[in-house]
What we know:
Residues 1-142 form the Resolvase/invertase-type recombinase catalytic domain. It holds the Pfam family Resolvase. This is Resolvase/invertase-type recombinase catalytic domain-containing protein. By secondary structure, the chain is of the alpha/beta class. It folds into 2 domains: 2-119, 3-Layer(aba) Sandwich (Rossmann fold), CATH 3.40.50; 158-199. Helices cover 52% and strands 10% of the residues. The protein has helices at 15-24, 44-51, 70-82, 102-140, 158-172, 177-184, 188-199; strands at residues 2-7, 29-33, 57-60, 86-89. It has a 4-stranded parallel β-sheet with strand order 2-1-3-4, with helices on both faces. Helix 1 links the parallel strand 1 (2-7) and strand 2 (29-33). The longest helix has 39 residues, at 102-140.
Amino acid sequence: MKLGYLALYMNKSQLPELKNQLEKLTVEKIFIDSTSNKDVEITEFQHMLELIQPGDEVIFLTLDHLGKNNKEIRDRVIAIHSKKARLKVIDAEFLNFHTENQQFNELGFQLFVDLLEEIPRIKKVWNKERQLEGIQRAKEKKVYKGRQAKYSKTTSNPENRTVYFQIKDLILKGVPTTSIQNMTGANRMTIYRIKKELES
């Protein structure tokens, strides 16, 4: 049997078109989750899992319908696989491991699961690299100002700006660093930095 699943938590106006796409793929039964309400006891995805039989084909139009995040996608892929059903993602054909070689299919499935686990780390590294590239470009254009200090005379936060001038005033009055720290809540490094500014 061919089963189809849709998750429409935001743009529900797409429902008729998406159902039509699944019907063109000769899907016999379509399951639709259209609410992100956590109070729902049993989702349509869970209903679908209960009905899946070995050899069934479960069709998703996109990976987005498989889950809201990588962990949910991974858990759902494993759940479908445990039912000995075939998973088909229309916009990601490279993930559909259905060949005559069962050993190859299992290897492909495991690689997919491993990839889902690695995606958050890959994204983190990629975002960091993009951030560094942006900083380098800004430096080359001489517009990079670095990270703004929490307590400074130019900070956009008026409360933090007030604390800065309070620290400055206490330093000029000769109040010890520990006392300034207790009175303002600023850390010692911040107080030392402002001291250095006053000395320069």
